[in-house]
């Protein structure tokens, strides 16, 4: 036990976008408890409470050392009464009783199982629970009508809920790259989301597609999807067209935080041999990748988890594709790299501290009444008066 007087008092800036948050976390027990409570709030459709817990967890993720006493946290931002109570409980007893009882509650378990179905959000899940449906089995037996996304989500439940490895993300990247350059030579594919931040696993794989010549990217998504479909790579896809230009409320002020790029939410069919073949060229040059690829090949254990079922020669993987014109690429890249909290904090910083509106399309300066152009993420941070934070340090 460290003497309170000797323990260092931490200090972190207010906004997550002013901090460098790597994947190294010295306070995992605390942040796991707060993240669990955030997840529960989101599952209960209480986003305000969810954000409060996410902000508190993000502050602790940015600390250079484990917290040993509450006094070290004096003056830190974003730690509300409730979060401090949770932290105190963990420091005194080794775990959060609220997080533990939440985790074990039937309602939390049911909400988590049901929203694990792709296409099912907290509202639908809550409605089903009110009608006595708490499990996948009960849902299947109920005869409730499911939309196309939910049908695919239920059918591919295990795959969609199994973490995606970096090796699998790279294999999908090669498929997407082949698809994109087949239908539009010169087009470029960039891995975004958690994998761009250096995460080793993810719940999906995110890609941003563009072409160096403005306008050439128009209508690209349907062609990419057709190509992927013709090759049997898609188990499900829903493509939404670009709605940016025709919107009336101004490009930097979308009605919601959703952007309006041409996009595709999909479920890929990734073959076992695809995963190996695409790894082979890399295994010769990169020892680290080889190690990960083999770990991943041994680690999935499909036969062990479903002993009486034929192991499938493929797995389902959630993939998000977004097409951006090159003029908006830097904004799209920044907006799709995450983390979600980092993005939220960037927009909060822009609005409250700079009187600017940031979206995945543009940055608008409300004082100067003009758009600020940028061709790189570095330029956007500079416009916002922020020190540049590389993707690997945006893990807030
Ligand atoms: N995003 C978005 N609009 C959506 C969905 C996601 O702008 N409708 C952005 C998020 O803000 C985030 C990025 O896309 O910056 C990636 O989101 P997501 O895949 O949900 O999260 P990851 O950080 O990639 O984490 P995971 O590994 O769990 O996929
Ligand atoms: Mn992702
Ligand atoms: Mn995530
Ligand atoms: Mn995604």
UniProtKB/TrEMBL annotation:
What gene, per UniProt, encodes this protein? POLM
The similarity comment for this entry is: Belongs to the DNA polymerase type-X family.
Q: Which coenzyme or cofactor does it need?
A: Mg(2+)
Q: Which residues of the full protein are shown?
A: 126 to 521 of 521
Identify the main location: nucleus
Protein name, please?
Answer: DNA-directed DNA/RNA polymerase mu
> Which EC numbers does the record give?
2.7.7.7
Question: Any idea which positions bind Mg(2+)?
Answer: 204, 206, 320
- Choose any GO biological process term that the UniProt entry carries and state it: double-strand break repair via nonhomologous end joining
Keyword Secreted appears in the UniProt entry: no
What are the alphabetically sorted keywords of the record? Magnesium, Metal-binding, Nucleotidyltransferase, Nucleus, Transferase
Is the keyword rRNA-binding assigned to this protein? no
Give the function comment from the record: Template-independent DNA polymerase which catalyzes the random addition of deoxynucleoside 5'-triphosphate to the 3'-end of a DNA initiator. One of the in vivo functions of this enzyme is the addition of nucleotides at the junction (N region) of rearranged Ig heavy chain and T-cell receptor gene segments during the maturation of B- and T-cells. Gap-filling polymerase involved in repair of DNA double-strand breaks by non-homologous end joining (NHEJ).
Q: Which reaction does it catalyse?
A: DNA(n) + a 2'-deoxyribonucleoside 5'-triphosphate = DNA(n+1) + diphosphate
GO MF term list = DNA binding; DNA-directed DNA polymerase activity; metal ion binding
């Amino acid at each position: 036990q460290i003497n309170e007087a000797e323990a260092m008092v931490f200090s972190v800036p207010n906004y997550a976008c002013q901090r460098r948050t790597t994947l190294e976390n010295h306070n995992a027990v605390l942040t796991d408890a707060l993240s669990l409570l955030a997840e529960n709030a989101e599952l209960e459709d209480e986003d305000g409470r969810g954000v409060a817990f996410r902000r508190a967890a993000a502050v602790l993720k940015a600390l250079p050392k484990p917290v040993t006493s509450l006094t070290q946290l004096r003056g830190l931002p974003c730690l509300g009464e409730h979060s401090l109570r949770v932290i105190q409980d963990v420091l005194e007893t080794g775990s959060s009783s609220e997080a533990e009882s939440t985790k074990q509650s039937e309602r939390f378990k049911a909400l988590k199982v049901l929203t694990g179905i792709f296409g099912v959000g907290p509202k639908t899940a809550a409605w089903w629970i009110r009608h006595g449906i708490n499990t996948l089995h009960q849902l299947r037996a109920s005869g409730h009508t499911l939309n196309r996304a939910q049908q695919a989500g239920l059918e591919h439940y295990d795959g969609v809920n199994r973490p995606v490895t970096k090796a699998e993300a790279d294999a999908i990247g090669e498929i997407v790259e082949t698809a994109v350059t087949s239908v539009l030579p010169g087009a470029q594919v960039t891995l975004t989301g958690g994998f761009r931040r250096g995460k080793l696993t993810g719940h999906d794989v995110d890609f941003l597609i563009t072409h160096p010549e403005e306008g050439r990217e128009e209508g690209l998504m349907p062609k990419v999807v057709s190509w992927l479909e013709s090759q049997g790579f898609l188990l499900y896809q829903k493509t939404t067209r670009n709605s940016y230009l025709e919107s009336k409320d101004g490009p930097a002020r979308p009605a919601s935080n959703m952007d309006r790029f041409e996009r595709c939410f999909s479920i890929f069919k990734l073959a076992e041999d695809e995963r190996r073949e695409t790894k082979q060229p890399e295994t010769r040059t990169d020892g680290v990748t080889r190690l990960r690829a083999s770990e991943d090949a041994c680690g999935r254990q499909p036969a062990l988890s479903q002993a009486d079922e034929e192991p499938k020669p493929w797995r389902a993987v959630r993939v998000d594709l977004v097409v951006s014109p090159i003029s908006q690429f830097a904004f799209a890249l920044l907006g799709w790299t995450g983390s979600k909290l980092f993005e939220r904090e960037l927009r909060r910083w822009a609005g409250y501290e700079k009187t600017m509106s940031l979206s995945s399309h543009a940055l608008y300066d409300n004082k100067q009444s003009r758009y600020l152009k940028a061709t790189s993420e570095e330029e956007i941070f500079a416009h916002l008066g922020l020190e540049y934070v590389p993707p690997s340090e945006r893990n807030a």
